[in-house]
Design goal:
The structure holds two protein chains of two kinds.
Chain A lengths: L1 H28 L6 H19 L3 H28 L4 H22 L4 E2 L11 E4 L3 E4 H23 L1 H11 L1 H6 L4 H26 L1 E2 L4 H15 L4 H21 L3 H20 L6 H7 L4
Chain B lengths: L1 E12 L2 E12 L3 E6 L5 H9 L4 E8 L2 E2 L5 H7 L1 E4 L11 H8 L10 H7 L16 H13 L5 E4 L8 H16 L3 E5 L3 H7 L2 E6 L2 E7 L5 H8 L13
Parallel strand pairs in B: 3-8, 3-9, 6-7, 7-8
Antiparallel strand pairs in B: 1-2, 1-4, 4-5, 9-10
Classes of the chains: A mainly alpha, B alpha/beta.
Amino acid sequence: MIDQIVQGVLLGGYYALVACGLSFMYGVMRIINLAHGSLAVLSAFLVWYITEQLKVSPFLAMLVVVPIMAAGGWILQRAVLDRSLRSGPLTPLLSTFGIAIIIDNLLFERFGADTRSLAPDIGDLSYRSWTLPGGVTVGQLGLLTLGAAVVLIVGLQLFLKYTPLGRAIRATAEDRDTAELMGINSRAVYAAAAAIALGSVAVAGTFLGMRSTFDPYAGGAQLIFAFEAVVIGGTGSLWGTLFGAIALGVAQNLGAQVNPQGFLIAGHLLFFVVLAIRFFAAGRFSSGWIKALRRAPA
Amino acid sequence: MSVLRVEALDARHGLLKAVRSVSFTVSQGEILALVGANGAGKTTLLRTIAGAHKASAGTIVFDDVDVTDVPANKRTRAGIALVPEGRCLFNGMTVEENLLVAGRTGRAGPWNYKTVLDAFPMLQPLAQRKGGDLSGGQQQATAIGRALMTNPRLLLIDELSLGLSPVAVNAVYESLQTVIASGATIVLVEQDLSRVLRVATRIACMLEGRIVLEGRTADVDKEQITEAYFGLRRGATLEVEA
């Protein structure tokens, strides 16, 4: 049982890494990026391609892919999302859905349907583990993934709190019109936020490639897990996203103990229950503990 | 020398024309008070000058540059700052963060985090308090301080005393004297006529989107303003050269 919870926490670290960019983008721009999973898979392919071509470590390739994806995020925001935001909340949803389809099919066109993995490129890191007393095993890659998620989230929080651009992002997220009146170019701030979100997607894509296999159509599952983590933890809250991701990972691992199909069902069930509580709590059934669950952790 | 020149300005809310062919100028160091009943168009006029609302006709010239189609953030960086009605603080951010976020414009001038806190002593112990946790007077002081952080050439203040207790209004006006003494050019929307006549150098009264009375505060009395305010002087605009 304890081992399953530990494995769930480590899995949650990966979900947090994937969900971080989704949460950030929603928190700042109120855009639900349906292309998020596909962008993570695109990043995984880019890292894989560089690793294969240049025979370098995936971690080194990631350092190249992060700025490429960040630049892509900037362009995506200025060229597509910024325009679609002006047409109401549904248009960005449709735009990102379309982008996801384009990415998936371009990847399929270029790389075919074969599954790929970065695991062979990281040596025994993919299966090395420590065994703790009580038979609890802690995979080194899983721990590294959780560590990367925590570093990313803490880093983003510090960036938002202490840097001028971070404060501008928070101000714009809170009230775009007033931010403009304070001399903040909200379009540039949104583009910077999209760049940061896609930079974090590149990190998530790298870890996706290292911990499992991926193919051009693997983005959908990544999006669903990321979305569930964000909703469970409270939309737009980075710490909430970490909490939600870990809760999702633990639920899935415990569900798998009950039934092999329980892995996915338990995760979806937790998502559904939290969503239902939030839904009912928005009405007149708001009692103390429900309100506590409704609130996103700060 | 005029800092702001507004010529035949119109602004709409859908089909409603909220500002109708408004023209006026504001000179360097002048404090122009805009008065008028609710719905007279004062807030829309200020927001249009600041770039938060689109002008449907007319021109806004700031420092001899036509800024009518310039976005709000560029106008702020050019030197126009608005303290919006209702303060509109970033409630999730501390007082310090609210001030610092506006200090990114990079405009040189006398105002920085320290000088703003010196001008508004009530904010000094509140620097780490969230905007949403402040009283109305503290919020108004923060909102004015935040606008000053942009080092404006023209400060637009909308409904300075709205929703504030008399004590808070006194405290804010006391701090505003420091701003006025620094030679700031201000357009102030205010409902308190007695205070307006003490603080402002010029006054303009709006009615149904038009300026129906304009002149130096020394040349108009409360009765004239009251008549204009309620539309009793309609069509009899008093123009007094500054």
